[in-house]
Amino acid sequence: MWWKETVIYQIYPRSFQDSNGDGIGDLEGIRQRLPYLKDLGVGAIWLSPFYKSPMKDFGYDVADYCDVDPIFGTLEDFDRLLREAHALGLKVLIDLVPNHTSDQHPWFLESRSSRDNPKRDWYIWKDPGPDGGPPNNWQSFFGGPAWTLDEHTGQYYLHQFLPEQPDLNWRNPAVREAIYEAMRFWLRRGVDGFRVDVLWLLAEDLLFRDEPGNPDWRPGMWDRGRHLHLFTEDQPETYAYVREMRYVLDEFSQPGQERVMVGEIYLPYPQLVRYYQAGCHLPFNFHLIFRGLTDWRPENIARIVEEYESLLTPWDWPNWVLGNHDQPRLASRLGEAQAWVAAMLLFTLRGTPTWYYGDELALPNGEIPPDRIQDPAALRQKGRLGEHGLPPGRDPERTPMPWDTSPYAGFSTVEPWLPLNPDWPVRNAAAQEKDPKSMLHLVKHLLRLRQDPDLLHGRYRTHQAANGLYAYFRGEGFLIALNFTDREKALDLPQEGRVVLSTHLDREEAVGNTLRLRPDEGVVVRLG
Ligand code: ISL
Ligand code: CA
């Protein structure tokens, strides 16, 4: 099945390629860069939202599910992009944002117009609490209460994100059918599936109970962390909604042409894997991001891999992620040398990897002057969404793709919406293309190598995870050895083999019973 053998490449449309000189990336820009993606060797692209939107959360506030925002182009531009991607053999996934709409969506404008409007029940309205304040203690992801009072009708509406992103009422079958119709609109056009935004937040507790306090919360951490989310996350009803979405996808699926659902789900493994059973093809596994990159040691990474592998049934296909538009850049979290090692890890684990645009250049977090901050989450609460002394907000990981040394790095002809990485004159795709020892070339080599059936489908088995070294087998044919340190290491091999790829891109050679690894080196060994 294609989605088990592909690599998904995430594009943040605002930041990939501007084609009309307004400093903001667009669909036509993405189309022009398809050859780069084909040459890189990825098999699918996922586009973050490009729907009509007031852009309060840069497209995650949708005002029309069935149209393209003029900033990004037109429906014709989308059709052309899809057609050309398909002609190159690239699948296209789009972002579905079903949990909430924009407050400017016609559904919400109707819903808020009066208490007896037929669309009133399309959103979640509640009377004020006994003290006249919000109905309960739920907090939004972006700071402050998850409730905003609508003066005109005297009730509060729920928003897990910005007040400009009211939550739809998923218990209402008419709401569900409306979202499914939007899915069909894009499936008919030919999209290969959806990355579904905040899939684990679709339903909330029907009794609207207060959430219990989080004993680990400290002042300075984000508001959302004040409570344990027993009543706003991963409610049992959600599984039924996931199943219904899967039925919609299956209406349009044929063998070899499955339309797939990739779910954004930040949950512990035992809860995460239940989404497979509900019908989600690939519930995003973010554990490397939130437990791995924060504690980059072989013992820890091996535990993250083994726990996951042990919970999957033969029907569940694994997947791995190292970065996205909500998380600091990989290269800034691990340092460049270990980012290369991490790339080798991601592309040699069992399962479908998702790669974030620019990480193939080891793009670092952008430096955003205070007067250029764009992210609403950063503007509303100090610190970042996830603490750890990380830079404020999500702009640093959303800076424009540096293509070459022409003005504005070939991204645009004017100053881009976010600043370029300061080192763009040397760190850009053209420069790395010319340098056979660049990270770009490492990624290309890895993507070609992983076409081998053992790397695609062979089972995973840990060989060693200690002493700064992580080594594992894939199928019968491969051993991958990763040096997590900046010191030389040696590893005993069970049998002889051949180094077929080093992260240093400078050796291919036979190895005997001892494999020597240089500082920050990862290698793929073909056994036998
Ligand atoms: O980044 C996070 C966890 O480390 C979250 O706070 C993240 O914002 C959340 O998981 C939801 O993300 C998704 O929905 C948001 C949107 O702002 C994000 O960009 C999107 O990925 C609301 O639609
Ligand atoms: Ca543009």
Structure, described:
The two termini are 29 Å apart. This protein has three domains: 2-101 and 173-448, TIM Barrel; 106-158, Oligo-1,6-glucosidase, domain 2; 459-527, Immunoglobulin-like (Sandwich), CATH 2.60.40.1180. 27% of the residues lie in helices and 17% in strands. The protein is of the alpha/beta class. The chain has helices spanning 2-5, 27-32, 34-40, 75-87, 106-113, 173-189, 237-251, 269-272, 274-278, 287-292, 298-311, 330-334, 336-348, 376-380, 429-434, 439-449, 453-457; strands at 8-11, 44-47, 51-52, 64-68, 91-96, 125-126, 147-150, 155-158, 193-196, 260-263, 282-283, 319-321, 352-356, 460-466, 469-474, 478-483, 489-492, 497-502, 509-511, 514-517, 522-527. The chain is globular, with a radius of gyration of 23 Å. Calcium ion (CA) binds at residues 18-20, 22, 24, 26. One of its GO terms (molecular function) is alpha-amylase activity. Pfam families: Alpha-amylase. Belongs to the glycosyl hydrolase 13 family. Keywords: Glycosidase, Hydrolase.
Question: Brief overview, please?
Answer:
By secondary structure, the protein is α/β, with parallel strands linked by helices.
Mean pLDDT: 96
| CATH fold descriptor of the largest domain | TIM Barrel
Q: What is the CATH class of the largest domain?
A: Alpha Beta
Strand order of the largest sheet: 11-10-9-5-2-1-13-12
Bound molecules: 6-O-alpha-D-glucopyranosyl-D-fructose, calcium ion
What level of helicity do the residues show?
25-40%
Number of strands: 21
Structural domain tally: 3
Instruction: Provide the CATH superfamily of the largest domain.
Output: Glycosidases
Report the sheet-strand fraction. 15-25%
Outline the biggest β-sheet.
Answer: 8 strands, parallel
- Counting DSSP H or I runs of 4 or more residues, the number of helices is 17
Distance between the termini: 29 Å
Broad shape: globular
User: Radius of gyration, Cα only, in angstroms?
Assistant: 23 Å
**SS-based class:** alpha/beta
Low-confidence stretches: none
CATH architecture of the largest domain: Alpha-Beta Barrel
